[in-house]
Amino acid sequence: MKKKSFSIVIAGGGSTFTPGIVLMLLDHLEEFPIRKLKLYDNDKERQDRIAGACDVFIREKAPDIEFAATTDPEEAFTDVDFVMAHIRVGKYAMRALDEQIPLKYGVVGQETCGPGGIAYGMRSIGGVLEILDYMEKYSPDAWMLNYSNPAAIVAEATRRLRPNSKILNICDMPVGIEDRMAQILGLSSRKEMKVRYYGLNHFGWWTSIQDQEGNDLMPKLKEHVSQYGYIPKTEAEAVEASWNDTFAKARDVQAADPDTLPNTYLQYYLFPDDMVKKSNPNHTRANEVMEGREAFIFSQCDMITREQSSENSEIKIDDHASYIVDLARAIAYNTGERMLLIVENNGAIANFDPTAMVEVPCIVGSNGPEPITVGTIPQFQKGLMEQQVSVEKLTVEAWAEKSFQKLWQALILSKTVPNARVARLILEDLVEANKDFWPELDQSPTRIS
Amino acid sequence: MKKKSFSIVIAGGGSTFTPGIVLMLLDHLEEFPIRKLKLYDNDKERQDRIAGACDVFIREKAPDIEFAATTDPEEAFTDVDFVMAHIRVGKYAMRALDEQIPLKYGVVGQETCGPGGIAYGMRSIGGVLEILDYMEKYSPDAWMLNYSNPAAIVAEATRRLRPNSKILNICDMPVGIEDRMAQILGLSSRKEMKVRYYGLNHFGWWTSIQDQEGNDLMPKLKEHVSQYGYIPKTEAEAVEASWNDTFAKARDVQAADPDTLPNTYLQYYLFPDDMVKKSNPNHTRANEVMEGREAFIFSQCDMITREQSSENSEIKIDDHASYIVDLARAIAYNTGERMLLIVENNGAIANFDPTAMVEVPCIVGSNGPEPITVGTIPQFQKGLMEQQVSVEKLTVEAWAEKSFQKLWQALILSKTVPNARVARLILEDLVEANKDFWPELDQSPTRIS
Amino acid sequence: MKKKSFSIVIAGGGSTFTPGIVLMLLDHLEEFPIRKLKLYDNDKERQDRIAGACDVFIREKAPDIEFAATTDPEEAFTDVDFVMAHIRVGKYAMRALDEQIPLKYGVVGQETCGPGGIAYGMRSIGGVLEILDYMEKYSPDAWMLNYSNPAAIVAEATRRLRPNSKILNICDMPVGIEDRMAQILGLSSRKEMKVRYYGLNHFGWWTSIQDQEGNDLMPKLKEHVSQYGYIPKTEAEAVEASWNDTFAKARDVQAADPDTLPNTYLQYYLFPDDMVKKSNPNHTRANEVMEGREAFIFSQCDMITREQSSENSEIKIDDHASYIVDLARAIAYNTGERMLLIVENNGAIANFDPTAMVEVPCIVGSNGPEPITVGTIPQFQKGLMEQQVSVEKLTVEAWAEKSFQKLWQALILSKTVPNARVARLILEDLVEANKDFWPELDQSPTRIS
Amino acid sequence: MKKKSFSIVIAGGGSTFTPGIVLMLLDHLEEFPIRKLKLYDNDKERQDRIAGACDVFIREKAPDIEFAATTDPEEAFTDVDFVMAHIRVGKYAMRALDEQIPLKYGVVGQETCGPGGIAYGMRSIGGVLEILDYMEKYSPDAWMLNYSNPAAIVAEATRRLRPNSKILNICDMPVGIEDRMAQILGLSSRKEMKVRYYGLNHFGWWTSIQDQEGNDLMPKLKEHVSQYGYIPKTEAEAVEASWNDTFAKARDVQAADPDTLPNTYLQYYLFPDDMVKKSNPNHTRANEVMEGREAFIFSQCDMITREQSSENSEIKIDDHASYIVDLARAIAYNTGERMLLIVENNGAIANFDPTAMVEVPCIVGSNGPEPITVGTIPQFQKGLMEQQVSVEKLTVEAWAEKSFQKLWQALILSKTVPNARVARLILEDLVEANKDFWPELDQSPTRIS
Hints:
449 residues
């Protein structure tokens, strides 16, 4: 019986990630056949440049796939099985401000952690809800596979504001780290590992890693990580310097709890000062990306569109993103794949807020994710996670209630922010910088000396 | 690489189930190779009659397996990978009293439900702990696969009194009912179904059943069960009348909650009067088994031992018990099989006592079971389960504290017992009947008029 | 400074309790000055006969109090500080059916316990919500002091359907039993006792009783109750036979848990058979009341109205109801009185459903009740209470969702109902009997053989 | 009937607080009669200088009180009704190091908050347990009234390591702040206020303050505090500059949550930088106290002992400490006084760790404290409190398990410590400084770059 083929819309078509993901989808048509692929964005000019290249890729590799790029929600979201969402409200320009404003006050300036993540979240909530509503309006049976950042705040927002929506929140960081673990262990693929992991998004720990036979791989990994972090002795693939620092820093982050292996983003919470020291407040990661990947991708796309051929294209298949296909297939074919998803806790972590959105192993089938219980977590992780989940929940409360006070409280609570005064100064700058993107907040009744 | 082969001891070697299970093990040597098989029992005379036949089976079908039957704990439990426990403290004679005493007062008289289950539990706790202690003394790395009844009370006792023991509590009733569901659905095996189920042992509900592609099979099953119970239109295999009544009664039990499919044992709690009406206080199920299966198995074993051949044997392979092999393989080879096990709740059912032993789907690997979260259960099931788990916990508290009062409270709480007076009368009879098996209870300070 | 005086409306003016309560209010004007007293009922003819007498009482004892009896909600609920609610939807006639229908099937027939309480609850919810809405419409700052039965179901309904309403649910049974305890102990008033108590309404236990100096009075009380129940050696006041049986039966109920002293209503759950045995299905307590108190009160009221004098009145001050004044004063004057109220659990009982309405000691002030924590309750009480609270919650869910199925589940769960079939038969009779009072339930999809 | 009089031992007799407290006790003999007063300390030389003066006070004011100062536990703790504990293990010298070491790294250096509190806690646990064990050995019916700091860590330690001990943990900070609130409101005493408050010790918030009639005093207080902090317009009593800064800083701390009024210690967590800025790493509060109060008290005591008269004594009655008498009287006479105590949460705060030691209003009687439920707390306070309670619990776990790793985790988690590296550096210095007082910790397996 010929496998059913699917209709996909990529929300955030103008993203620099779109070409690599389209190539990845075209590379997995065997397992995941596609009949229709659409790009949707609210920035027509930007999306058309990306779409030009994707059109060439598809005509060359799978001409029978119906392809369209549109800014019309009805066209984009009608007759769709899956929405693959990687939107970035405010694009890199706003990300630069997210990073630079905190650094002005000596505070971590990062895309999803600390004040930057809060600012980015306050922009993203409206965007993700909008797309979710389009999906439910035009394709009520569709699923949204959301890997838009900051996933933690977006996931809490969809839990609170769209509790019954068919949205799966997933993050690629654990995938990337597990790829490195596999290299460190000499395995051919991370899929040879069975892992137990828990935390919030960008804020978690591996507690058990076995091979297929059930042998415990943690001792070997811990031994390696305690010396080299997540840098394999022989790098399969060269990475940018800043990523290399991150994987090396895992060494110190792991020292804080030798019983586990940490998600690398914890560096921003446990060693914020080190992060600030190596940041340039006037030229942050966002600037690197704009000058690096964004420039590269758009120049390549223009060239492919111009030459109506991908022959000279240097754009690589983003196979690292194949977890999106795994997730889509799990829903489509009830595969029961074991994947880390961001889901409502509801008892999975026994001694943690049942309404928190936690990142835990799930068995994914056509009915969605079945979280696997974690049990009780140690006090160190509970203390860190309760603090951080309160930041995320207060941010969503602030967005929903247009509350300056609650957003200030979110910043005060963040482990990356040293005190309430700096929190207030950063917030006032962020309000100003985001006035075109955030809901208008009520005026805080309180001043501090 | 030649698969590792295992050493097994069957605790309760003298059980009538042993021959069928040994035949089943011999039928599954391909997937689960065995190097040594021992029977252990504290009733030498009874075990030797069973062992005689098993010896013949093994010599005929797998002569290289080292076989022994012993009443010496050290011999039995040394160099063992798995203990397969199906003990019955007090044998069928006491089960007959468990059933007859309550019936004397018009109350359900059943092996594991109501006062009978409480009495049986009070006998079994000591027996299971004893075996567990032998295992940990002589083979500290071994696992106990316990399907001794009453599994709910035994599981609560091991949780409370041996919290760190490597014991897996499992029950074959859901396996049996799922076999029938598969027949009703026209599937070749229950393993083609992916199920979601929750409850206490002998006290649970299926909430979702899909085929491999994720299609919802519940509507079809509910339609069938609401008319015929768990009786397929064409019975694959004739069953005893009393089992047939049970599978038919599922029809009425299911009516109490049309959203789910019930475990058949719920009939004793929702329709106790019907159960009592069709029981004969002087000739209960235990008597049927003694006159039926027990007599049959022992005569067959004597014959096989006499003829030193299984040629004329009518003892069938108990393939229904192959779930035991599935469980052993999951531990041995880290298969990650999805099975219903009785595990500590600890958040799996979000709105239920975290310390309750609940029967839920688990992913089973070499580290043991990983329960899959159930989420929040409806008020009807919560009310029934909280009442019943209190019966089970009070029984274990009564055993541990030798408390007549707590055992009376357990009986008062049972849905099968109409009032505190009858609970008291039954308890006093059971105390008398079990004085050789139960711990000696303190004298209750209270009388009732 | 002259104490503020209050405006009261008694909802359920036509109740036989109204005259005694009015006399009690007039007897407590010193502590609780009243400027305006209104009676409200939806049965004008019945209320006018009661109002006639009350008019005489007020003119004789406190002529400056403005008095009115009305069936007009706006008039009744405008300019009101307190609504004192003792409504009985369906009056005694329906209560008779509540009691007789279950008895037909050998099941407890009682006003607030078992099927009778469920039926009464299904009538009362709408009535209490209606009054609450009138109060909030016409006197938004007022408080409703609700002692309408069945208080447990009414309290759960107001929690779920009017979560922010200023309603205090209180019951007089503990007050009555504590009065008797005081007599047993030789104290002049129950107010010399400091008690710790927990449970659901009509379903609780005293765990600690001290005198003012902190001496433990439990041993002496337990000693007495274990022999005589709640019957003091010398009765201060003769009670009706049925009440006497109830207070005597406490002896057996207490035996089920010698560590506590029980609420007498537990007799219907622990000794339902004894209750049924002494009931006459054709002449229940409701009939006794109609023939007894109801006839007496209305004849007395007619006489007082006729004679325009209370001189020959035999209607007594209902000082037992002075707890209503205590509660009103606590709100009015922020007295911080310690009283048993029915409040949302929310942690008061640590190991019990946080959304359950539980009866626990509270400190009552102008902001309402502050529940005192109970801590963790034993397994016996938890099992009983979880079962019973599920009955109450399912009844309110059934009312809100018009669900025949959920009401059947409520009856199945009740400890007083022996099995699902009898539950179904009783339900079908009750549906028929209450078609003028209950919401119209959907048709249950299920039949049982 | 002549009131019973009591035997008291003050543990930490050599404390500078002892004279003021003894004078306070002598000033309250009417409400709390004392027959025997003993001082106990393990520093004889220091205690004798204090005892000399106390001996004079007692002979002058209540000669019939039996007085003794001893370093012998049996003598001190025999025939005792109450142990009043204000011990300081390591005295002010170690407190100076607690404050100076963190300041070396730009981190808050304070007696009970941040690294200083953790270091002080690691010294105090052993000391308080020792005294508790003496009390239970020699006067098993006695109660310990503990106001030794750091009360939060000491309370968690006694909860975990002595769960059944009769110890009441109380703190005087809320008392001091409520005194100031009363002045701000123009009330004669804080006892005219009924408060609702929750938090951890030195980490809480007032949520409701009423006068006796139930009028809401919060608006007026919030208005004042948002401008002047806790500084009344006319100071009843001049305070030291550092205390004045603290009460003024409440203004900024309150801005973080305008719905509540904060405990002043929150300044160290919300404005750590401001605290560090005004600290002199070489001359901290401990030095001020040694040079100030300690020198003053010991010189005064020497003079009183020399002159065998208190005539020229400038030592004031520490009436601020009369809360200790209130607490003792509540136990002794079952007064049911409403006081803030540090008790096991166990549901009092519904959405917070049930095993946390929380500071909440309690009704105190002869059976000990009955916590009043708080209900659910907002996300901001929950985030802050979960982080801080994890610091406290990890400190006690580190003490009990002699774990360097867990103590490092406690420091990492503290909101006052900027990152894991500084946490590590501070810890290594504190280990060195406290080697005579802390248990010897295992060596951490981990290093950081």
